[in-house]
Hints:
The complex is a heterotetramer, with 2 copies of chain A and 2 copies of chain C. Chain A is of the alpha+beta class.
Amino acid sequence: MLDIYYFAWVRERIGEPRERVETGAATVAELxxxxxxxxxxxxxxxxxxxxxxxxLDQELAQFDSPLAGVREVAFFPPMTGG
Amino acid sequence: MLDIYYFAWVRERIGEPRERVETGAATVAELxxxxxxxxxxxxxxxxxxxxxxxxLDQELAQFDSPLAGVREVAFFPPMTGG
Amino acid sequence: MRIRVQAEAFDMGAELDxxxxxxxxxxxxSFTGRVRGTSGLTAMEIEHYPGMTEAAIAKYADEARxxxxxxxxxxIHRFGTLAPGDPIMMVATAARHRTAAFEAAExxxxxxKSRAPFWKKEIGPDGADWVAxxxxxxxxxxxx
Amino acid sequence: MRIRVQAEAFDMGAELDxxxxxxxxxxxxSFTGRVRGTSGLTAMEIEHYPGMTEAAIAKYADEARxxxxxxxxxxIHRFGTLAPGDPIMMVATAARHRTAAFEAAExxxxxxKSRAPFWKKEIGPDGADWVAxxxxxxxxxxxx
Lengths: 82, 82, 144, 144
């Protein structure tokens, strides 16, 4: 089981801040493909991966990063703190 | 009549913070020569002009700057504020 | 080292009271960011990623402390709904010399801006917009 | 714009209270210099040139304000006898964006350091020494 978090406009497009999924995806990219295949709102949120960032267990990662052992995935746009 | 001010170690070598002089010097350099000729303590204070700065009427100037119309001259080492 | 992620407002002056008063500190630099009340902005909403936020800030603060031998470092960042004029965040650095204190503060700002998980939304008369990352903010990281 | 040359101590936090709270200010940067208590230093004496000091500071503050479009600028510099840990001086700048606020504060520090008529003398267990200007401080002016 994997906890997925969404922030900012990704959260708004998906329509929820968090969900728990069962997945066999080996990488972040494979997980994204699974989600896109599910529903239109995911396709909308993940339409342009270059506009998105991903964190695995609260550390910034890449879309080709492996998911083995990961408990928490987060998708969000580039940060705008400060 | 010209007011001359001395600061920091220049003041300490000259032995006073301020004096009033009557001079016909046309430039700062000429004034310095006059002072050096006066007494040993001036020769000591003005031994190395590259270690000194000069201000005319409270504005930084050069040793070849003219003294015409100037009321106040100040000699001091490089500033160390901040 | 003082790191806080909070919804509450803070007072820049009060936070700096007594900051960096150690024996070997010659320079204290602070930066405070505020909500600008321009273009009819009525509010700013800041979302963050609890847990990751604190960890990311601690990582950059540690790095700044080690790299510039800081005697002290402070980072405060707010989330939630803010009004124009409100303080958003602040950093402060204490070092022996001014160059180190300035560089460390700018380093922290550049990293917090683009790598700490905060997202700003501007609420104005015509609706709400997520603030887009600026190319210059991403580029600013290259100098470190 | 607030410029003060004074013998009295000041409180960095209190001075920043309410500084740069104008509507268009997004960034406030402050620098505070303190007497370091290293090498057995027991006191620091700061001499200045009354009149010229205020004029020089006002000139650099004006220049910083115009060049970086500052909404506000503050400079305080002390003279007289200071103890280790005492604040020597501070500058603060308020601007729309962080880069302008940081640059203006560094500009002011670099000029105050080498062009405002102050001279520091360090008093230690072995006597008193006038602080010599550092080559790097003079060189720092070139970047502006």
